[in-house]
Amino acid sequence: MDLTVVAYVIYLVISVALTIWVARTLSRNGRLFLADVLHGNEKLADAVNHLLVVGFYLVNLGFVALYLNGNATVTDARGVFEALSTKIGVVLLVLGVMHLGNVYVLNRIRRRGAMEREQFPPVPPQGYVTPQGPLAPPAGA
Fold this sequence. Notes:
- The structure is a single chain.
- The protein is an all-alpha fold and 141 residues long.
- The longest helix has 42 residues, at 77-118.
- It is built from three helices and no strands.
- The relative contact order is 0.13.
């Protein structure tokens, strides 16, 4: 069997396994974050979480498939490791950038929601206090 094909198979196995592991980890640990972003709406948090995971799979597995093509022919064991290290390193970087992008967007949504909640007083005004001190209007005016 050609060593280039061996490198492709190893690359696919490792890349797909890493993509699945990262997606499951993000899905499991990101659920609470999404629930907070979406103001405790559990059903919506689960739906958004599932959609994010599906998008994550599509983008990353599509990238893995496109990046499979290599111009270099692998002739020895050293070449297999060099090809794999480059390809898997790029896949890991793409996975990391995707993760940071998701966290950034969700954090922006969360901050915007927090700012909207802070614009309203926590309790309605219950009365009026007359000003006192040097800036108070004179009595009877």
